[in-house]
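INFO  loader      accepted 1 record
INFO  loader      residues=214
INFO  predictor   begin
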Amino acid sequence: MKTAIAYYRVSTDRQGLSGLGLEAQANAVSEFVHREGYQLITSFTEIESGKKNKRPQLQTALEQCRKEKATLVIAKLDRLGRNMAFIANLMESNVDFKAVDNPHANRLMLHLLAAFAEHEREQISRRTKEALRAAARRGVKLGVMGQARGRENAQKAREFAKQMQPIIRELREAGFITVDALRDELNRRQIPTSRPGSRWHHCSVHALLKRITK
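INFO  predictor   done
INFO  writer      dumping tokens
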């Protein structure tokens, strides 16, 4: 069977700890490897800025891919960074990789897509700065609503972790110790996540455990 290693990336520490964005990536990769007949060996998660080329988790993932002769699988091309130099370095590693949102892309197409992604990032950054300057000129206090919403989401996450604590304790006492074992048993028992309709994944269980142990 073909083997694969997943690489996930989120752009901030807060997103990484909360699991925001990770669950969607894990869902996409899981469906892809199952559909394409890959065996997913392991996964690596990078908490980094898309503007930076230094990503230790990616380097570790690439080394593991070379060792296992596995394919690197990502959910979206822009998750590998919106930087042409970074994409070029990745392709020079000689590791096969697949982007779930464009599984038939060859290396030339990846170069073109990366160039478009970088251009889009620059345009978004420019428009955002212009909008912020315009709002500041109108006397708008920036960031107030976002900060309030962030505090509200953090409080909901803490409350959910508190509700889940006795369930996690029970599972651990029953012998489900690792993150993956907890994930599988939570799904088997159909214990709902904080997002209705979603399944438990490695990253969401990991984030839950971090909140519980705080």
